Amino acid sequence: xxxxxxxxxxxxxxxxLTVERSFLRYYIARESGASLELAERMLLDRRPVKALLxxxxxxxxxxxxxxxxxxxxxxxxxxxxxxxxxxxxAGTPELLMAVGQxxxxxxxxxxxxxxxxxxxxLTMWAKDGLKVPIDDKPGLLGAADSFCKISERLRxxxxxxxxxxxxxxxREELGQxxxxxxxxxxxxxGKEIVLFLDxxxxxxxxxxxxxxxxxxxxxxQFKCICTxxxxxxxxxxxxALHRAFDMISVQGLSDVPSQSTAAGGRGTxxxxxxxxxxxxxxxxxxDALELLLRNCGGNPGDILRxxxxxxxxxxxxxxxxxxxxxxxxxxxxxxxxxxxxLSPDEWTRLHQVHRSKSETVxxxxxxxxxxxxxxxxxxxxxxYRVHPALLPEVENRAGAM
Length: 401
Fold this sequence. Notes:
This protein is of the alpha/beta class. It is built from 17 helices and seven strands.
C-alpha cells in the first residue's frame, strides 16, 4: 500500500459492525432502517413476540439488529447470537445446538446467572436425553460446552443420524429448558430476555425455512428476532409460517436515483455518510463518489465493497486517492466476475427483467436475487431491477442478439 489513508480506508470498509466497538464507531442511522420499528415492538408488547427481519444480502440487516439491541438494552436483556453455519452444515439439529450454545455463552458474558437447577436441567437434557458423554462442568459455560460436544458428534457421519433423530424427538423439551432459564433470569433481574438470531439467512433459503418450521422456535416463551433470506418470503414453504410471526420487518435498499445523485433523497445522503465515515471525502473525487452511488443500487454492502476494492486498486496503481477511472476498473472487474459466474440463460433472464421489470418471482429470478444480480425495491408493490453495475453488460448482450 502506498498511502496510509488508503490503507486505513480499506480496513475500515471491511469492519464488521456486529462487533460493538466497530458498530459504535461506524454506524450510520438510515431513513430506511428497520431498528426503530423492531425496538418499539419489543418494548411495547408484553407477549413473547416472534419477529423476522429480512432483506437482500448487504442491505444492512445485521447492523439494524445491532441497533435494535442497543436501543432496548436499558429495559430488556438482548442476547445477540450469530449462527455462522454454511448451508451444507446448517441442518435444524446443528442450528438448534448453535442457539443453545450461543444463549449460554451470551448469558455468561453478561453475568446473567440463572439458578443452578435451571442450568443443570439444561445439561441433563443433553446428557441423559441424548446419551452424549458430557463432563460435569458447572454453570453456563459447562452447559455451553455440552452443546459444543453435541455439535462435534453431529459433524461425524457415523453418529449424526441417530443423534439428529434424538434431538428432533426432544426439541420441545429443549425449548422448555431454555424458556425456564429465561424466566429465571427475568425473575432475578426484572428484565425480559430478547434473543437475536443473526446469520440464519446465510445458512441458505431451504435450511432457514426448515429451521423455522421444525425447530420449535415459535414456541419459545421469550422474545426473539431472527433474520431470514429475502427470497424465502416468495417460497411456497414460507406460506405456512407467515402468520405465525407477530411481525415481519423488511430492511430495504436505499432510494438512490439511477441517473443523477446530485439531488438525491435521504437514501443518497445515507450512503454518502457511510462512505465518508469509512473512507473520508479527501480520498474520493466527486466524480468517483457519484459513480459509486449510481452503481451500488442503494445497497450499503455493495457500496462499501466497491469502495474497499477501489482502495486496493488505487494503492496498487501508486495513487493516493480514488478517481472515476479507478471506480470504472472496479466495476469492470465486477462485471467480469459475473460473466464467469452467470450462465447464458441467466443473462437472458436479466435482460427480461431489465426490459419488463417483471413482478413475477420464479426460481430463476429468486436465484438472481440471492446473488444480488437483481435488486428488489418495495413501494406499494415490489419492483425488480437489474443491479446497475451489470447494466452495461446486459445491454451489450441484448445488442448482440
